[in-house]
Predict the 3D structure of the following.
Amino acid sequence: MTSQNITSIASGNYLHPHFVAIMVFAILLLVCMTIICVVAASLIVVIVYILYDFIYWRVVENGRGLEIESDLEEGVERRRRRRHRRVMMELPCVEYGSFGLETTSTECAICLEDYNGGEPCRIMPVCKHMFHVACIDNWLNVKITCHVCRQRIFNLRNDR
């Protein structure tokens, strides 16, 4: 060793080039690991937030969504019932056996009972099928077609 090297070592100013390279590598490694940890922690926080938000909307808000959907279905059902009531009101009620009755049937196709004289009946305006008032009114609560031929009660032009 030379005297200059001994003096540098004694005073603490001498660092071996490999030692400096190792220290720089270690510092860079720590900085990179810190950045990776911060990014990973941020990703975990974002993933947890997204999962929480997804679960919240699927579980908590879904109940309210079902209520809205059932409200829509109730509205549709209410309109359907109103339309069916309107159809029943527009169908004339006639007495079986009255003069000029345009039907050849002698029994109700719904209850399969014979018509009695003076019994209230409804005749479908398009197809001319006849039914007891109570029988066809129950049918018309569900459908607005003829029970026998499934034809619409009124022409589409009149059924608005």
In short: Confidence is low (pLDDT under 50) at residues 156-160. The CA atoms of residues 87 and 144 lie 7 Å apart. The longest strand covers residues 120-123. The two ends are 111 Å apart (CA to CA).
